[in-house]
Amino acid sequence: MNLILFTFIVLLGFTSYYFGRKKAYTIQSTKKRLTALPQFYGYYLAIWCAIPAFIIFSLWAIFEPTIVKLLILSDYSNQGYLDDELNLIYEKTKALSRGQFTGEITPFIEASAEKYLSLRSIAQSSKVVIVLSAIIASVAYAYKRISSNSRTREPVEKFLNAVLFTASLAAILTTVGIVFSLIFQTIDFFKVIPLFDFVFGTHWYPAKAFVRDSSEALDPTMYSDTFGAVPIFAGTFFIAFIAMCVAIPIGLMSGIYLAEYASTKVRQYAKPLIEILAGIPTVVYGFFAALTVGPFLKELGTSMGLEVSAESALAAGGVMGIMIIPFISSLSDDVITSVPQSLRDGSYAMGATKSETIKRVIFPAALPGIVGSILLGVSRAIGETMIVVMASGLAANLTLNPLESTSTITAQIVVILIGDQAFGDPKTQAAFALGMSLFLVTLCLNIVALRVVKKYREKYE
Amino acid sequence: MRKNGVKMIKIKAKDVDVFYGKKQALFNISLDIEENQVTALIGPSGCGKSTFLRCLNRMNDVIDICNVKGEILINDFNINDKSCDVVRLREKIGMVFQKPNPFPKTLYENVSYGPTIHGMAQSKQEMDEIVETSLKKAALWEEVKDRLHEPGTGLSGGQQQRLCIARAISVRPEVILMDEPCSALDPIATAQIEELIDELKKEHTIIIVTHSMAQAARVSQNTGFFHLGQLIEHGSTDKIFKNPDNKKTQDYITGRFG
Questions:
Q1: Total domain count, chain A
Q2: Minimum distance, in Å, between the CA of residue A357 and any CA atom of chain B
Q3: Roughly how many angstroms between the first and final C-alpha of chain A, as a whole number?
């Protein structure tokens, strides 16, 4: 029903666009000067059709369920039910009205279900009536304004401005929402686990928290030595470091090759091929690391007399580095290519060779962009989950030996949130605390990156 | 400079053809350039004068599809020969471009760039000297001596162009090529550069491409007129401007086309 109504409104919108434009042509034919191009008249009318419909739809979506619920539950007031019980009754009513109720049907609930259905249908039909009449009224008003040839371009432009503003606002609000959801859970977590233990504890063993019977009272002392985040932070940075050791040199050098040395033909084929790397799903990298690189490193290590774990930081970090290569190479290629040719000419004309020109002129000029691409790579490396989960294991060892297995923040979040979990449990909240700290780390990284880039900008422009 | 009344020829171009891909841009150019004189190359847009200029320090190498044929002798050595070292060639032949293109570095680094890559200074002191003399010769020293370590891109357009000239002369080139060096500058900056060119010709051979006939008349001793990829006429500036042999030159100079 909603879908039909919606389609109908869209059709109405198109029709009003058509009529608005037609009206403009009629005005034009009377030798009057239009205040805007004819399509603005059309847009104007269509906007006047869409706005009231949108407002009424959203009001309905917000208030209909609450009002219906209030009306249904008003029958049960004064009967001494608790809030939870009232909610349960309402849920039962809804389920019964959909025919999905399996429990015992009491006459009370049956009556409520019938009332629910009738309320819903009243709401639905009144919505249709109100939406349509609002549209008709507003389109009639707008049509009158068009007929008197008043301004249409400015309102349309303002409307577009508002739409674009709303879109960016949505993105910002979502970010804010995510941060807040993290903050509250994190605060709850730190009520149980002292911040000091989390930040400086060297022992991460959340499995200990899994064995708690949730009916027992929460005893913070049993979590001492459970949520020490040092090993997983160390593991995260360590694996990211290995990844960047692979990605920065290879990515940067291939970027420079593509931008400066490669002939048009080579570039034409090489660039898309490298970018294919970016299109491989991380889970594929994950089993490549776990099933190919890991065992290969183990065998290689054994033949050299080294003890290599099958799940090693080296395998995960190395494969992660390969995954990041295309980001760095493609972005730095773009940045280098956008350095003006006049700088190259100036350098060549001084008798500089290609490599001197790149080292002394192009690279410094492109540095802000290159730093940007590297930091983008770093935040990918820190945020990468799948490769670590599959190739580096889940044991949070505190080690700097790349041949042993370590774990990262993201991998631990996966471990914690897989399977059954209860909200309000320190184990689950630990995931939020980790997410929050990860967010803070990447935020700091971004701020540093912006500072660096800005500093060099000032110097080089 | 004339020694015993004999013109000293610095650059001798013989039958130079230039192709961009399949399109021929220059046809059979033969031109002698006198030492320590200013030679102006004039002609309508797209006539090939800049292309010819870029042949002289092999800057056309940078363009993949560009192909240069013929002989260009500088000090009787053919620069189009395989044995020619482009790095050494460009050390000897400096270039100043149409749009000022200082590197995104400090003023000091801009001027010391050439001497550094050619290893011309043994110590910091020597480098300081080179930078100072070059900036003085480019008539920029007084304006910038207190801010040598600020970015070169912070200067005004005319100052930037003089910085580029200082950069070009820092390696003491024998020849300086100028590709419309004043087209992005205001009249005052243009006058400064023209004055500078007059000064520079004492030590350098200068070839300047210009759109301004007045400028060619003011600064040059010799002029070559290009049209549609051909060198129509060349000779002393006086003769070209007052009494050209060719009808086309006459028309162009008097502003009838171009």
A1: 2
A2: 10
A3: 60
